[in-house]
Amino acid sequence: MRRPNPLLWLWYAFGGTLPMRYRDWVVRDLTCRTWLVRHFLRVLVVLSPVLGVLYLVFGVALDGPPEVVFPALALGLSVGMFYSLSYAPESTDNRLTKYGFPHGHATKSRDA
Fold it and tell me: What is the pTM of this model?
């Protein structure tokens, strides 16, 4: 089983499809025992640049008060993570359909 390099992994984390030679790795990534932790980390990687830009705009460029900027960013992160984790099973099922698996394959594999 081949693992993608860091650049390909970033592409994958942002929703891109990896070449088919990584198909086995994707199945393992989405169905292993730690699939939810992996999903959490992928979402954290996706949200980090957005939160970084918001911090630069509101915290640095507009000189927003830290007692407002940091709680707002933390709230944005927590809401984003909540929604992402709420739909994690559906997200993983949809991700596997890109690789030719039937819808619901990840959930059925994890349940078995």
Answer: 0.88
